[in-house]
Design goal:
Helix content is about 80%, strand content about 0%. The chain is mainly alpha-helical.
Length: about 300
């Protein structure tokens, strides 16, 4: 998935498809490595408007995972998280909720309610619920996750800092950017001390500050945070990464001087990096060669799914 992080989505998918074909040939149709790779492919394909195709990919991956792994195996939990990501990206919030509810139950049964794995599960579920009518419950779960992690790891642990950023993000999503900023301003100093000021985790704090400043009506402060974050992302990931492109779009909003263009929905859409899937959302911007390559990759996936279905 490194190719995806640096903005080379097509190369990422091509690499994953090749890996899946190798695993199928060398390890057989019941390989957990094949299941994991298919689930990663499904994540990359999850903005494809052909929803049934995407569901088939993630369902075949799930069938293999269920057959090969015990439900309490860590890699089965990883599959559930990727499946939930797929459903969430497809706006299938009910399926995402059901998948993560299973992950929460498995984590609770195996680790109890005071373990980081349980905290991870309830946070993921909480984020999904924010997209539904259960926003208050979603917020409560994300906040509970932070408390569990802080009690287990200590408040200055990197995972706890990331959880605190997530809590601030939730407040921003629920329309309280000022509350989010009150937490993020203090959190930035802690993040700089514990995470270092030249890595992606610190840049993530700065980007969240930039989003909150924009929605709180302070574009100048937003620009300062976003420029710092952008420089870190360029150094770490390269200029073509989705994170860099999001920062550039946020900076464009901040510099536009048009406050009417800045709202929570626009910020949230940029945060999802949806525009990176140009071949699906803006098909006319893709060259004929690129379109052919997209179709060829999907055909290879379809043929593999047919072979795997025959073996189940």
């Amino acid at each position: 998935m490194i190719y995806f992080e640096i903005g080379q989505r097509a190369k990422a998918e091509e690499t994953l498809i090749h890996a899946a074909e190798v695993f199928e040939k060398k390890l057989g149709p019941d390989s957990i490595w094949l299941a994991q790779t298919l689930s990663h492919i499904a994540v990359l394909e999850s903005y494809n408007p052909k929803k049934e195709f995407v569901k088939q990919v993630i369902n075949v991956a799930g069938s293999i995972a269920v057959d090969v792994l015990e439900e309490n195996h860590p890699e089965y939990a990883d599959y559930l998280y990727r499946a939930a990501t797929v459903y969430q990206n497809m706006d299938e919030h009910g399926l995402a909720k059901a998948t993560l509810t299973e992950a929460v139950k498995l984590a609770q049964d195996k680790y109890g309610q005071k373990h980081p794995e349980y905290a991870t599960a309830i946070s993921a579920l909480g984020v999904v619920l924010l997209e539904t009518k259960e926003k208050d419950r979603g917020k409560a779960l994300v906040e509970q996750s932070e408390r569990v992690l802080a009690d287990y790891l200590g408040r200055e642990h990197p995972e706890v800092i990331e959880a605190m950023v997530e809590v601030a993000r939730v407040k921003r999503l629920l329309g309280n950017p000022r509350q989010a900023l009150d937490e993020l301003v203090d959190l930035e100093a802690l993040a700089k001390k514990q995470l270092g000021e030249d890595g992606q985790p610190y840049a993530n704090v700065l980007v969240e500050m930039g989003r909150a400043y924009l929605l709180d009506g302070d574009p100048q402060a937003a620009q300062q945070s976003l420029v710092k974050a952008g420089n870190i992302f360029v150094e770490q990931l390269g200029e073509e990464s989705p994170d860099v492109k999001e920062v550039l779009r946020l900076l464009q909003l901040a510099r536009s001087g048009n406050s009417e263009q800045i709202n929570g929905e626009i910020i949230h859409q940029l945060e999802k990096h949806v525009p990176e899937y140009a071949e699906y959302n803006r098909i006319r911007t893709v060259t004929s060669q690129e379109l052919t390559e997209v179709q060829e990759r999907q055909l290879r996936i379809t043929n593999m799914l047919q072979r795997l279905s025959q073996n189940q």
